[in-house]
Amino acid sequence: MSLARTWSVGLVGLAGGVVEVEVDLSSGLPGMAIVGLADTAIRESRDRVRAAVINSGMDWPNRKITIGLSPATLPKHGSGYDLALAVGVLAASEQLPAGTAEKFLFLGELGLDGRLRAIRGVLPAVMAAVKSGHQQVVVASDNGPEAQLVGDADVWVGASLAEVVAFLRGDQEGQRPVTVAPPPEIEVPDLVDVVGQAAGRLALEIAAAGGHHLLLTGPPGAGKTMLAERLPGILPPLTDEQALEVTAVHSLSGNLPRGSPLIRRPPFESPHHSATMPALVGGGSPMARPGAISRAHRGVLFLDEAPEFGRGLLDSLRQPLENGVVSLHRAAGVSTFPCRCQLILAANPCPCAPATGDADCGCSSVARRRYADRLSGPLLDRVDLQVSLPAVSRRALLDGEAQREGSAQVAARVVQARTASAARLSAWGRQLNGDVPGTVLRDGLRLPRTALASAEMAMDRGLLSVRGFDRVLRVAWTLADLAGLSSPRGAEVDAAVGLRLRRIG
Ligand SMILES: [Zn+2]
């Protein structure tokens, strides 16, 4: 037989499609041509695949080799097709038993010496394979545990092309992935370490309970970063479905631990303010990669010294945060990544970042205003909670030991509040107060006028926009859920208005 076929997967963003690999050997000038919208990396794989086959002790057919990748409309990138191409060539040249190659789907890059290397994005690729009815998947040993996360997949692994071929020939028993026991729960920073900062702790708890975005202002050393790092520790652990979603994104970033890749904790991403747009929201070419906002999916995106990021970069986050997805348009297609994350912005009160946090630092009020203005605009309008933190006094450092609560206690209240909001909001298909549309707040969840007095007054004075009013209502509902109330009273609305109006500068 001089025609063989096998399977692999093409990914665009997190979406994958099964690719049929057909190999035809014919008489004609020896050489190898790949047809079907392949990028340069795939065309370069010709030489890799040839070297790998020869160095694995097999024969390279001295004929004209034509490889078709279909559907031709699906863009195909990278080196992950190497293994499928090699197996296809070996099958077409009758070095494998007839019919074996097409029973499996192959994902992996080959080294010149025939070693089988791990690739990025194996998890979403195997998900796509199983969805299309290809359960029998062969990957590199290092990718095995990740591929195994897809429940219905039947995963085989190999460390080299020679091992895979021995398995396909039936000379050697197939190998299964070796999953390492997950490491003891990675230390998540605990709230018990935070001294003082009652307002900051409360804001963090409200943010966790309602899924609200949060702005923390205060002098350096006030504990903004400490607090932000502790948000994942008071969020509920990811559900099985969420864990797979998050792990799939990190699989594309190529930063999963090898032996036990499943991410169970809400992630925490803190890009530096010198980050580029592609680093923050995703990008790159030809295959777009997820940015920090997507790596923070189901977790926390922390922007320290937020005004330093600049307006353009901050505003670019608004649409993705609102939609929960980032869409990146490339010549090769539109890549879509999820980005349902909670944003925490931290800012110093003025550009000189005074250690004491008082007003005597020498910055003029104009300079302070200009600094604060860098944060204003559509993004800040999405931030329900805006809290300024005082500098930590020596007194608090000495006295604070006795009554500090740890993350576990706070997390228990967060779960309770989230259960209450999920029950109430299920009618609108929502779970968190931070996600409730304004129309629902003002209609289905309308509060009595008496409870709204302070918010309406702030609106009349022009201190609160219509959107700001909605945000106040969302926080008021979270305060009610935390307090175990069936709906917010005047006190919760007052508190929510207070949290909203405390701006920097
Ligand atoms: Zn200053």
Relative helix content: 25-40%
The count of helical stretches stands at 20
Major β-sheet profile: 5 strands, parallel
Mean pLDDT score:
89
Strand runs, count:
18
Bound molecules: zinc ion
Find the structural class using helix and strand composition.
Answer: alpha/beta
Strand content: 15-25%
Distance between the termini: 77 Å
The strands making up the biggest β-sheet line up spatially as 11-14-17-10-18
Rg: 28 Å
Taking pLDDT < 50 over at least 5 consecutive residues as the criterion, the unreliable ranges are none
Shape: elongated
Q: How would you portray this structure in words?
A:
The protein is an alpha/beta fold and 505 residues long. The chain is built from 20 helices and 18 strands. The strands form 6 sheets. It has a 5-stranded parallel beta sheet with strand order 11-14-17-10-18. Helix 1 (40-55) crosses helix 2 (82-92) and helix 6 (198-210) packs parallel to helix 16 (407-425). It is elongated, with a radius of gyration of 28 Å. 46% of the residues are buried. The protein binds zinc ion (ZN). Zinc ion (ZN) binds at residues 350, 352, 354, 361, 363.
Q: How would you summarize this macromolecular structure in one to three sentences?
A:
The protein has helices at residues 40-55, 82-92, 122-131, 144-148, 161-169, 198-210, 224-229, 231-234, 240-253, 277-281, 292-295, 311-315, 318-323, 365-373, 394-399, 407-425, 438-442, 453-460, 466-483, 490-501, and strands at 3-12, 15-26, 31-35, 64-70, 105-107, 109-110, 116-117, 136-140, 154-158, 214-217, 268-269, 282-283, 289-290, 300-303, 325-330, 333-338, 342-347, 385-388.
